[in-house]
């Protein structure tokens, strides 16, 4: 095989190679790769988009502003590219606020590689450490209205996009999410494409105030409650 053009082709390549004595491929490696692909690379994007749609339903005035900005920036009959975000500060702010507000993965465990002393505490090598990203993403000293969905958290007085240092949904440091760049691109392109095509509303008989933003307690990611959605095709 001269080139690896997908995850599937990579799998077949290592299948052919795994009988070599020095091969690093084994079933545990395969299982870890599948979990990374599905849970980290698919589940997180899908759940974030679920939240984004729910929040657009709950705050239709924000949804309208996003659609207006899309109309001004993206040519009719075309799809947005990731580069378009530079000319779409409000849409960019909305997506960042979605990620801040939902705290999708607030407690991702890490493991100490060496014996560590931190702020008077001794952390031996191999101990599990669980940072609380919620303590930053919902910190009242960093955000004007931490428990409210407010895209203005990422906009200056002139409406320009401003990224905050306390925006850490992908964690921080050398062991932060390796898929951060890809996730940002996918979220932007998918979100803009959805709002370019549809307007999302609650089902008849349900008002915006009826939409439930509480989170079930037993999920890997903090998913929204299942709720009916009306996707109305835009002209």
The dominant shape is globular
Regions with pLDDT < 50 over 5+ consecutive residues?
A: none
Oligomeric state of this protein: single chain
What Rg, in angstroms, do the CA atoms define? 21 Å
> CATH homologous superfamily, by name?
Cytochrome P450
Q: How much beta, percentage-wise?
A: 5-15%
Fold-level CATH name: Cytochrome p450
Q: What structural category characterises the helix and strand content?
A: mainly alpha
Q: Report mean pLDDT, rounded to a whole number.
A: 86
Strand order of the largest sheet: 1-4
Largest sheet: 2 strands, antiparallel
Measured between the Cα atoms of the first and last residue, the distance is 47 Å
The count of strands amounts to: 6
Q: For the record, what CATH class applies? A: Mainly Alpha
The arrangement of helices and strands along the chain is HHHHEEEEHHEE
Q: What is the count of distinct domains? A: 1
SS summary, helix count: 6
The CATH architecture assignment turns out to be Orthogonal Bundle
Helix content: 25-40%
